[in-house]
What does this fold into?
Amino acid sequence: MGKRHSKQKRSAVYEGVPTAVPVENVRCYTPVHTEAVQSICVVKDNICLSGSSDKSLVLYKWTDGTIMQRWTGHKREITKVAHAIDSDAFFSASRDKTVNMWKRGTTQGGVCQTISQTFEGHDLVVTGLAVSLINNQLICTGSRDNFLRLWDVETGYCTKQSAISRNLVTDVKWVPGQHAVAQTSEDKCLRIWDTRSLQESQIFPKKNYIQTCCDVSKDGLYCVTSSNGFSGQGCEATLWDLRTSKLIMEYKGHTQTTCACAFSQTGRPLVVTCSNDSTVRVWDRDTSECLSTFYLDGAGPLLTLAVFSDTSVCVGSFNTGIHVLSFGADGENGKAHLKKIAQY
It folds into this structure.
């Protein structure tokens, strides 16, 4: 899983209204987490959900520095977060082996400790979490215990489970418009599971390094995975065709483990990655050209990212909280590039 890092805490003030400070046109807000940001997902434009090693889950509007809700209740650090589309349900997976479902509290921006539902059954840390894109009634979880599980959101019961030896799950994503989830593993494989039976329906050629993350394109035709590695070996992202189970493209340039990858879901087909080498990269999906690289000085390993519909990117770091980058044309030559616009 790569090099272990000791925990580092940063001071943060949760109460009150954060104040934006103009530093080279970057809006700097009070950090919302005190430890490493492990997972981020987009809720809607300018609003994202983040989970941290500080055991808290935060709903945040980065354009004005508003903490919309903070949830606490896990006994150990949060590993993955997810949001049910067109719903007020938010989910978090943890090293405490559980997944919690949360709803908004009555106090805007306050701390809520009321858990709406708990999903218990995994024997080890939960490392994959996805909400059904069909009806929001199911969630899929994966763990280092080799199990993939489906849960009924309303009852909290596990409806199906399946295990494959050495399939230590690293990430899970629902395939849009299908009864299927994509799943990456420490056994270096990408798998597709049929959620109606929770049986393996596709297995892709094994890579040389652990696959750390996956994302599925909005049209359900492609999957991108990211790879563990060191000194430029491995460290790539890989584009797969879900129709043929074939490798299409590799995106090489990171020098350390590529921890997260995502598609830009609108406009020009892009892939976005972040790495332990403290860089964020934007790639042309179809040519593998690296269009822009942004180095976040002092951030340490970059652990997670989420891409908004306007192609702005939220990136979670080990040392310095969450950074928001925009990707667009600027300057006389009109060349698109990344620039930092906010930090919290």
Remarks:
- The longest strand covers residues 37-44.
- The CA atoms of residues 258 and 275 lie 4 Å apart.
